[in-house]
Amino acid sequence: FPSHDNSGMPEYLRRSIELLDRKQHEILLIEMRTEKILDAVRKRVLDLDGIELFSAEKSPLRAVEKIESFDPDVIHFSEPSEQTMDPNYLDRIYKRDRRWKIFETCHDSSYPLSSKKFFPDKFLLVSPFQVKMMQDLGVPAELVQYDVPPLEMSNKSLTLQKLGLDPNKKHI
Predict the structure, then answer these.
(1) List of long-range contacts for 68-72, beta carbons under 8 Å, 24+ apart
(2) Is the pTM of the predicted complex or chain greater than 0.90?
C-alpha cells in the first residue's frame, strides 16, 4: 500500500486481489509503509485467504531482496514504480534478463509522464483518460475498471434522528 494514496487505490487493490485465484497462485503483498489511515482497507485485504504480507517498512532493499527470493511470475505495482520505490533499486527489478512480467497501475492522472524511467510490460489503467494519456509511451495498456456498487440511499431525516441530531439543522 503506497502511503501517499488515501483515495480509492487501496480498495482497488483489495478488489484486484479478491478476484485472483488464490488457491492456484501464491500472492505476496509487499507493503512499503504502514499508515493508520489505511488500516480498515488493510484489514480487509489481510482477511482474504492465501496472501503473504511482507512489510518492507520504507526499505526498498528489503523489498527487492524479498522479490528476488520469491521469484514471482508477475510483479504488479499499484502505482507507478518510481512513486512506490526508490528508483535506485528499480534496476534490479526491471533488469533485462528478468523472469517476471511487470504491470503497473496508475490511480492519478496528474502523474508526470516525462519523469517515467522504468517501463512495465503493460499498464493496467483505471480510466479511459489514462489509456489515452499513456498511449504515447509505446507500452501496451489495458483498461481495468473497478465498478463501484451503487450507494443505497437512506432516509436522511431518520438517519439524523438515529444519531440524535436535529433534522432541521445543518450538520458538518
Answers:
(1) 68/92, 70/26, 70/28, 71/99, 71/100, 72/28, 72/100
(2) no
